[in-house]
Amino acid sequence: MCFLGMCLLVLPAMSQELLPIKKENSCSYYGEEIADDVYGFASSNEAEDAVSEIVDAVGLQKNFVIKAGNVPNAVATMQNGKRLIIYSQDFMVKLKQKTGTKWAAYGILAHEIGHHLNAHTLEDGGSKPPLELAADQFSGFILGKMGATLEQAQSAINAKASARGSSTHPPRSARLEAVAVGWNKAREQAGHSGNSMDPTSSTQPSPPKPDPVDQAGEKLGELEELIDAYSSGKDNSRGNTSGSTTFITVGYSGDQYGCYLPISINIGGAYFSPEGNKYTVSNIPAGQQQYVIQGTISCGIYGSCTAYGEGTIYVQPGATYWIVWQNTSVGYCSIGLQSGN
Ligand SMILES: [Zn+2]
Known about the structure:
The chain is of the alpha+beta class and 341 residues long.
């Protein structure tokens, strides 16, 4: 399609196209070589649905395009500065047959999505073990949120990952551990153990709650409702006595270091991603609320970290809250909200 650097940009719908991706800027799930010429095809509805489910599970904005293509399994890569995920339809079908579950394919897609949502650049010699472990942890977290068992969340790695690892990919044992850490975080956040968030049952309307006073005391009932509202991630009204919502402003200091924060914040079940510093957002449930923040903090030459934090804040109408963070280990930060003016 290209002649002396001039390319035909308009392609007929549904046709394949040669993708000008750089192999060295790509993560392949098991670390395999990628073909010199990668052709992209329109993605299947099934893959699109899987990606929507994964992205919805954390309430983040999709910042990438997904295509089917002749790659070994799935890759996260850049194409002309755009974030792209290419997956092999053939591999996904065979993986589902081999493992007998959809979760292995979901685990691979969630891992690749994790690279993009965590703003991994995948530059300079491809991926690196710390980035891979962060993406594995993200994948475990997502599958945990979606109701997979730990075994299901680890099925993609158990199916094929190298026991010894490579220069780009960590050994299998480390990857399994990273998935377990992420999965456990999701279970802790949901406030219960076991597989009670099985997607086959979570689509059913939940039965009416018994009056908390009739149960083991009012406090316990309140706590359960909070946990429910939190784990459902959608319902803003439960778990807050007034049921009212308000607007707040969230800011951070760090502009002088050129920081930007591609993060997702969940306050009492209301999700948002700040689009810049001193960001005002409405429809936040008022009163005492639990919050979760996750994503990346990027401060230019000062480096970046994968950030995660949770806590409680008292949401007052129109108040300002500060995002504060702290390095906990190389590439990782804890992050939280503080009330202020
Ligand atoms: Zn990866």
